[in-house]
Structure formats: structure tokens, C-alpha cells
């Protein structure tokens, strides 16, 4: 068993919460809009092969909300500084949803410490004509329900979403999401122009029934990253790593092995 | 007490059954439901109603700002104020908008207000607001930047009015190399500034500060909130080093007067209930987008607004002081009571509301002007609160 440890780290005046587990080549996972701070079963699986590092973003959960947090580039640059401070090289960078957007921004800006890039239902790109639902108009319950293809998983998540114990963190998280993604809504025109700079082996995983960021957005990445492998997971919503854990872990492991880790 | 006739200009032809299909008449309610023939009638009727308030001797009239909704048809209130500026002769004209954070160039407001102030030879009252939460959905402006953009835009406009141009303005959201607004305002150093709010403690603290002393207006909320926020204003003023005058405090209150209480209640009911249950209908996520309020305020407000979707009756609204309705005697008594308890000296009666038809609006306005205003005009809040020194 890999197990995990939780630590705090302060960088540029911002203390963040970091979970680490396993050993091997470094794999950094950036969480999505719903927040992080949890060591999940799929992380445990990957920790058998990798040294998994899971930070909680500035402005989320147990991490600080720094004064300088204005937009997505601030988070991407903060994490590039984080990789340097941790002296991590040959990093397998992975991000889901909002975290996928951050990961793509990092790879666009400076890929020197990165080995591979895995984007799971990532935000960051707009495809003309593909309309994203406006989940700032959804209740927390509705949001939770729409994360999953599987109805039972959705109901389970909806129950957790109204648990008063998590209320303060949920509010803090959604405030930061709005800060980063309100306008332009979940994309960055700069990233759209310069995504093509990324030469890393890239895997894009998308749930076919993603009701939060439609899988049709995968085209926006495929067009700009010809080397990317695109994996559309059937019977799956916005979170393949939760909803189709084994498929996801197998696919990611194969991708990383195939890119000469 | 001073009296400002306040009109919201709703699209009164709103289909009463729209809520069977739509959750709200804001933002997502299709504008194909706006009939320009009916709308043209309404605009002209409403402007007549406001102009009539001038003839009846109100101290002022107010226009309002909301976007993409049947609730109110004044997305650019300056146009309506412009129409009123030449037709009215004595009233002050208070523009109880401009939602500054929504603008990319707040100098357009400095210009617009200055023009109105010149045309009216100093009858303009300059309102500054953040806009309610739904405006951030409609405009795309980031609600988490709302407070900061508001303060910066305000500083820019006030400096544009008071500091000789051209000068540069260096802000985070607004940066101009040349601030040199023509015309300059007619009133010197600048028109009076009023800050309407539903009750944000940040806004109250800011408006009451010694260097600003802006008039604070409490809009549609129960009297318990009115009392609390007006106390907060006075308390903040005291902390800032001065005693606030009752002329710095105003209350916007929907009001209906008829010959008798019974008649008033009977006539007003369908229209006030249409107003709260149809026009004001809006889901929480629309009203309070993330970041619109500070995290601490949000926690309080979210609990308080939980009743938002519930149907409300006229009796409830009267009971909690969101509606004053009755004979002239009843209305006078209520207003005097609330004035004493809250300590305001500005009253902004909404004498049109919801679907109230033209004839009842006219009679309501006349009765208010003739039977309510005269008795209260010289009235000040009793107790320790003194009259304005300005």
C-alpha cells in the first residue's frame, strides 16, 4: 500500500495544502472546479507506479486565497514556480476540468519540467458553436447530479453537495472558480492561439456524456495538438477518473508507458 | 421629509402565466415576449406619470436601471432622464442606476450625468450602484471584481468632475492617459451622490465615510432590515468621526393610498402581488453570483434570501413593512412611525408598482401629493437626530 501524507507549503505568500503518496516518477494532478484536498482511489492506484503529488489550488479548500489571484495565468505560473521549488523534473502533469485548463496553460508557458500531459475533460478552449451549459446558474445539487452519467452516482453526489459541513469550502471554491473562469467563460484566447506550442506527448480523456464540458470540445484540443491521443470514454460523465476508474487508470498507465517514461 | 416619486417602469403586459414555462422574467425570459406596440404605450404613459409628479409638487423623481428583464424597462436610465429633463421644470431628477462595474469606460457616465446636470441647471442627483447580481450574468462582467471596479469607477468619475483635466488615471481596471471630460457638471463641485443598496455592509461603510457622506437609500426590504442598516450607517459615520444627518438617509417604499383602508387594500392587492410574485421572481444563483458579496456577507444573505421563491401575500408585505397601503391617515401614520424608528428624511415612494393601471396610478399619486406629503413635509425624525448641516 502506498499511503499518503498531507503537508503545507508556502510560496509567493500563499500557503497551499499538498497531498503526496507513492513512489516513482513524479505525477502531479491538478483538481477541477469542485475542489481537491482528497486522496481518492484512482490516486492510490497510480501511486503504485508514480510519486503522486496533489496540491489544492490557491483560493480553494485549505489553501490561501492570495491577493495576486486574478486569473488563470496566475495559477499556472504559481504551479510552474511550485515545480521549480520542489525541484521536480520529468513530471507527468495531469489535470481535470479547471485543473486540465491550468495544466495546459503551464505546458504552453514552459514545458521544460514536463514529460507528458494528461487532460481530463479540460476547460480552456472554446469551440465556435459548442455551447457550454451555464453552471453558475445551477444549484450545488444540480451541479453534482450532472457530473455523472450514472444516475446513482449523481444522486449520491447530490446528497453530499448539500451537506452543511462542506458549505464554507464549497462557497470559497466557487468564488475562486468565478474569479478564474467567469469571463471569458472557461477559456483563454491566448491558450487557443498558442496551445500548438505544446510538443509533449498528450492524452485527452473525455466522458462521452459529459454534461458540464461537452465532449465536442475535444475537437478544440485535437485541432491544435496533432500529436494528442484522444480517448472518449463511453457511458461516462465529467469525471472519468471517478466514474470509470479502472478504464481511466489503465489508459493513463498505457499512455505514459508508451511515451517512454 | 423630502419626497421623490420613484418609477420602475415594468413591462406591465407580462403574461401572468409566464412562470408556468419560465423560472424567471429576468435574463432567460425571451424578448420575443416584448411587444413594441404595447411597450411604446407604456413608455409614454410612464413618462407622463413621472411628469405629473413634477406638477403635483414632489421634490424629485427617480429612474432606475436593470437589464434584460420585464421587471423594468430602463436599461439606459440616462435616456429617460434626458426625456424628463426638458419636460419637468422643478423636480430633481435622480438616476438610481448607473451600475458602474458593468462599464468598460465609466467616463461615459461622467459625461452623461454632466450633460443632464447642465440641461436641468443643477437638478440632477447622481446615483451610483453595483447593479444586482443578475446584471453580472447579463453583462459578462466578473462578479468577483464588482466591489473593486465600483470603487475605481467611482473615484475616476469624481476626479473627472472635480480635478482640472487633462490628467491621467491609473487604476487596475480603468487606466486612462487623458481624463478631460466636457461638459463639467453644473452643480459645483459635483451633483449630489446617492447610493441605493439592498443592504450591503461594505457599501454602507463606504458611503457613510467622512470624506464621502453620500446619501444612502435602502431599497425593497423589510423594515427590520431598514432599521438595522440605517443604524449601521449612523454608527459607521460616528466611527468615521461625525454625526450623520437624517438627510443622508432615504427609503424607497412601495405605497398605495385610497379614500379608505378597505378600498386601498382591495385595489392594490392584484398589482402588488403581481409585482412580488411575478416581476421579482428569480432563482438564488441568478441574484447572487459567486463573488458579488464578500464571503462573510454571502453566508448571512444566503440564509436570509432562502424565502425568495416563495409566494408572498399583500398582508405579509404590509406586516413586514415592504408595502404601505391604506387611507391617507393610515399612510401618514405609518410613514411617521417608520421615520422615527429609522431616522430617514428622504422618502422615495413607488406609487406605481406591478400592473397598477394608469387611472389608479394617477389617483394614488394625487392622493399622496395632496393628503400625505403636506402633513409630513416639515416633519423630522423625533429623538436625538438633528437636521442636516449641509
What form of chain A results from the Cα inertia axes?
Answer: globular
Low-confidence parts of chain A, pLDDT < 50 over ≥5 residues?
none
Number of strands of chain B: 11
The DSSP helix count of chain B reads: 13
Assign the CATH architecture of chain A. 3-Layer(aba) Sandwich
**CATH topology heading of chain A:** Rossmann fold
What is the CATH top level name of chain B? Answer: Alpha Beta
CATH class of chain A: Alpha Beta
Low-confidence stretches of chain B: 386-390
Biggest β-sheet: strands ordered side by side in the sheet of chain A: 1-2-4-3-5-6-7-8
Instruction: Please report the distance between the alpha carbons of the first and last residues of chain B.
Output: 15 Å
Count of distinct structural domains of chain B: 1
Global outline of chain B: globular
From the 3D coordinates, which CATH architecture of chain B would you assign? Alpha-Beta Barrel
Can you say what the CATH homologous superfamily of chain B is? Luciferase-like domain
CATH topology of chain B: TIM Barrel
The average pLDDT value of chain A, as a whole number, equals 96
Enumerate how many helices of chain A there are, as a single number: 10
Description:
The complex is a heterodimer of chains A (261) and B (390). Chain A has an eight-stranded mixed β-sheet, with helices on both faces. In chain A, helix 2 crosses helix 3. The longest helix of chain A has 15 residues. Chain A is an alpha/beta fold and 261 residues long. The mean pLDDT of chain A is 96. Chain A is built from ten helices and eight strands. Chain B has one domain: TIM Barrel (Alpha-Beta Barrel), CATH 3.20.20.30. In chain B, 43% of the residues lie in helices and 14% in strands. Chain B contains 13 helices and eleven strands. An eight-stranded parallel β-barrel of chain B has the order 1-2-3-4-7-8-9-11, surrounded by seven helices. In chain B, strand 8, helix 7 and strand 9 form a beta-alpha-beta unit. In chain B, helix 1 packs parallel to helix 13 and helix 3 crosses helix 5.
